[in-house]
Amino acid sequence: MENIRFAEELVREFLVFRGFTSTLQAYESELSTEIGRNFQVDKILGLVFSEYIAKYQLDRLVGLFTFFKQCFTSPADTELFSTLVKLELSVLRYYVVNALKSGRQDKVIEFFGESGNYLMQKREDWLPWFAIPYIKNPSFDPQFRVYFSKEWLDTLILSFRNFLSGIFNDTRIPALLRISTEKNTIKSLKNDIKQLNNKLAELQASLEAKEDEISQLRRNDNGAGYGNKNLIGTSTVGAPVEQDMSENYEESSTSSSMIQGFDSRSSCSVKSSTRDGKFHESSQIRHTEEQFLVTEEDFPEVRVGFQETFLGHNSSISQCRFSASGSNIASSSVDGTVRIWTYDSSTPSSKNATIYCGAEVSALSWECRSDRLLLIGTANGGIKAWNADAKRVVCDLNTSRDFPSVLDLKCSPVEPVFVSAAASRRHGSTIFERTGFANLTVWHMKTWKPLTVLPLGEDPPAITSLCFNHNGKILAASATDGMIHMFDMSAGLQITGWPAHDSPVSSVLFGPAETSIFSLGSDGKIFEWSLHNQGQILWSRDCSRFCNPESFNRRMHEIALDSNGKRLLVTSGLVRAPIYQVQGHESGLRTLPHSSSITSVDWHPTLPMYITGSADHSVRVTSIL
Predict the structure, then answer these.
(1) CA separation, residue 376 to residues 39, 171, 193, 381, 498 (Å)
(2) Where are the beta strands (DSSP E) in 357-504?
(3) Other Cβ atoms within 10 Å of 357 Cβ, number
(4) What mean pLDDT is reported for the chain?
(5) 350 CA to centre of own chain
(6) Torsion angle of C-alpha atoms 542, 545, 547, 553, degrees rounded to 10
(7) How many C-beta atoms surround the C-beta of residue 403 within 10 A?
(8) Order of strands across the sheet with 567-570?
(9) What whole-number distance in Å separates Cα of residue 598 and Cα of residue 557?
(10) What is the pLDDT of residues 200-242, one digit of tens each?
(11) What residues form DSSP beta bridges with 505?
């Protein structure tokens, strides 16, 4: 409890320091209601049953459960979330029962008027309850009699008590509420950083020693084998393979993948050690050599349950995305065409459509709560909102003239808003060099008006990828300068950021439990970053074999995480894409081949199924075993 009070004082101090007096007054007012009641179980039970229910404060009752869902559950913990929802529905039933016992039928009718839409999602359980205000003696009705009994109420209170006791002793309590006040925390962190730097220095020395050994091996081979730095890989030792060789390149020998104890993980560790900006003069050459000397093992081919191929496009695929339910798919091509389609013949095809945008489509984002709205971003700054039910464009927006290219769009999973990442244009050979300064705008999806522009500083590098956390309160954004930025959406402010790559970041994703962030750099490195210890790398892979720097000349690569957070799918400059096993003992898998490079990927929201779009104009849905 001391930690909680300390956190409250920190917030007060910050608000006073910034002069946010009105916010401070609202903060003090909210504290007076003590939602959460300092996580004291008996006080929360009294708040629910003696205040909110007894005085018919429905909005506060619903707000309390919303607070619990946001603070103590996540999409990765379906069991806890399901238990909380069942408990919420039981408490709402008692709200109705208490109103009927008190003769307040008006409050019952008001209850169903305000909460009807939410309750109808639980149609099987709640449909009979809509008639209860009009039943003369519901306490004698066999269907409702049990809810009027003292035994049921006692069971409900006991279940609520046990649930609260469990979560308040759980590690799921937000980190802010477990702030340590020990004075030696900073000193301890400095010691940890010092030890880490020493270990990195040892790794650097070891790498240089290995390079000397490799150089000696080359001299012994009279320059044969790996000397040509213009090659992308080797099929056997000394046999050159061209960049577009596809299948033969993928079936390369592992004799070049493990030399003198090197592997892909060690290369990532050494790369991360150079984040202070102090590079050895030969670091760029060393990185080029690693592409040949430190290639990954050949992954086994994925075991397929079924695969469906969609051939409705006439040019290279730029984006492909599953809808919120996973029943519908939106795919786009560089000729400006968007197609909405289904892969399952048993799924209604009523939403199927073709949309012509008049410019290359650079971003697609489905509304997170339904399959009704699809947002489409184009390379000329256009943003279209497509209503899949009405089969028409309901809004046609444009970014400002200063930022004429839309790089990404993301809908909030909770609020009716979306964020657009747009950029200015400039000349360059790669897609990152052709993007200039960044603009992040938050739009309202009912009025279709801009709400705010998120602050990025003066002349910020372009934002390439966006991702919301599960409750829409935090937005992660990756940039062309290698940074990852984190925004508090309720405040509209940047709360933190760190240098994630020594090259532009093309894709960013929250981890399954939202305690980490995945990022893909244009150097082909994938990192999983801890959100508890900023800057700490939890997991890494080098996928430059598939995402070689040359392929970034034409497009940005992207990553996608499956619903369990265990498999990471990456786009590929080859005909197959890698599926990495995250934090597992297995190295990974390979997708079945397209006939050209794989330009876009996505996972089904609930099933072991992924989608791949290709430069061969096809889109494939693959269910894996």
Answers:
(1) 44, 39, 44, 10, 30
(2) 361-366, 373-378, 382-387, 392-398, 405-411, 417-425, 435-444, 450-453, 463-468, 474-479, 483-488, 493-499
(3) 21
(4) 78
(5) 29
(6) 130
(7) 23
(8) 559-561, 567-570, 578-581, 588-590
(9) 9
(10) 666 766 676 666 666 666 656 544 443 333 333 323 233 333 3
(11) 521
What pLDDT, on the 0 to 100 scale, is given for residue 124? 59
Contact (Cβ atoms closer than 8 angstroms) between residue 421 and residue 406: yes
The type of residue at 550 is E
* Concatenated DSSP letters of 150-176: HHHHHHHHHHHHHHHHHHHTSTTS-GG
Long-range pairs of 394-403 with CB within 8 A, sequence gap ≥ 24: 395/448, 397/443, 397/448, 399/439, 399/441, 400/439, 402/437, 402/439, 403/437, 403/438, 403/439
Q: Is residue 199 helix, strand or coil?
A: helix
Q: In angstroms, rounded to a whole number, what is the distance separating the alpha carbons of residues 449 and 434?
A: 28
Distance CA 268, CA 118 (A): 47
Count of residues making up the chain = 625
Q: At what angle do helices 283-293 and 185-220 cross, to 10 degrees?
A: 70
Contacts with 88 (C-beta within 8 Å, 6 or more apart), sequence order:
65
Distances (CA, A) of 394 to 321, 420, 507, 533: 20, 17, 29, 43
Token representation of residue 424: 């200015």
Give the CA distances from residue 61 to residues 55, 65, 107, in Å, rounded to whole numbers and listed in that order.
11, 7, 14
